[in-house]
Amino acid sequence: MDAENMPQAQVNSRSLLLPYAMGLIAAMAAIQLVVAITGSESALIAGLLTAVVAVGIAVWGWRNHRKLAQVRFGFAIAHTIAYMAVMTSFNLHAMIRALSQSTQGNDAGQILAGWWFGATLVMGSLWGIGLLFHLVGSVLARGWED
Questions:
Q1: Greater pLDDT, 111 or 53
Q2: Backbone angles phi, psi at 55, to 5 degrees
Q3: What is the DSSP string of 14-71?
Q4: DSSP class of residue 12?
Q5: N or C: which end of the chain has fewer CB within 10 A?
């Protein structure tokens, strides 16, 4: 029996990607809690903790590379989950902070004058471009990546 005719081991995408998604959601919730506790002004703490999450994403992707390759659009889905977990956490935090500022009579637009501009608009835009290219490439490759 040659390699082409050998049966492939089945990968359960739910058991692979759901713990990854839940872990990222929990990690980003913890980061936003730390940022909130530190007064929502700590760019260094937020950056360092987000970098730890980024390293965790890379290690998880490296360790699960073979399994992800067996899931249709597996890498694109993992990339999208990471983008959504990280960006939604920062954008939601900024939105809540802006609403809080506006209800206290403060200028909510001042939030984006600080480090929140990079954490929301810059990171979201640049990472979004990369994600868009990844998704289009995955569609062109019909969902399978080698």
A1: 53
A2: -65, -40
A3: HHHHHHHHHHHHHHHHHHHHHHHHTTS--HHHHHHHHHHHHHHHHHHHHHTHHHHHTS
A4: -
A5: C
